[in-house]
UniProtKB/TrEMBL annotation:
This is MinD-like ATPase involved in chromosome partitioning or flagellar assembly. PANTHER family: ESX-1 SECRETION-ASSOCIATED PROTEIN ESPI (PTHR43384:SF14), SEPTUM SITE-DETERMINING PROTEIN MIND HOMOLOG, CHLOROPLASTIC-RELATED (PTHR43384).
Amino acid sequence: MPEDDWQRAVLNDVTARSAAAAMDPGPADPVPAIAAPAVVPLPPAAADVAPPSPEPPAPAPVLTPEAAALLTGKPRRGESAARRVGRSLRRLVASSAARETAEVTGVARQLQQPITTGRQIVVTSVHGGAGKTAITTLLGSAYAHYRSDPVLVMEANPTLGTLPVRLDAPSLRWTMSDVARVVAPSMRFDQVIGYLVALPEGGWLLPGSKGQIGARVSLDEYQTVAMALRRYFAITMVDCESLPGELARSAMAGAQARVLVAPATVEGVASARTVLEWMGSVPRPMLPGTVVALNATSPHTAIDLPAAERYLRVGDVRVVHVPYDRHLAAGGAVRLALLGQRTRDAAARLGAELLDRAVRR
């Protein structure tokens, strides 16, 4: 089989199997209909094995009604009206518009480049509060927006992670621990996504928990799920725990590309430099394929950004600055249409850089 037909070996014609899928006693959540190419049938020995069909867990809300009621008013736009007007005026200048169009086209081409095998990209941070989950959300949404093949976002984070909230998941049912117990090589693509959450901005989510204290993803569960699901998705984004946790170290070592999120502060940059030096000294160096996301969590940055970027270029590590965004900083669900243009551009550049590195490995 040609290498570039990899998805034909794993995707199924959902339309042709919709009647059979309706009789499947597996997950109760409706399976989104997606266009998928015809597949080469599995060998009889594998095709005849029925997938596991455990009792589906009860759905749980992402936020309790009391917590959801705390949200008031409309979400803010990422940029002020004055900044939006200024950008529109600059586009009236022919040279500026042509340059911007060329840059956007080049980045889009990188994001849409063909992938022959599933690529995993792990996002971690120097410490909590750096914006790791926000960056994961931006990247997962960008890949789902630009690509037509399947994109998965997984949460391999301690209990009470916020990824489902940021991705605006409608509800939660199956967790990574649940899927680790039932995933099987014989599953078809339409069966796999029955255990996942279809996201409003595109792509699928596998949460780490449903907000219970004590329900934490183990290293064995993560490795089982990551290996099993990789073949179904072109890109798998992993929102991982902060370093130096054991799961984070294992996930980063096995990924094709890595994002180290650091706040755009003096202490954040200093910590990131220390982590990068450690990543280059371990027996299996992690610097190849690593990109630093220098995340501005405040509208007023007190550091010299160009100097910070030069300081963080350890080995061939690339640094991408993600600017402060009012919509992103406000918390809650991230809407791509409400993000500032500079934030969308930075997320696209970060995604393109990561994908280039992931494909080369």
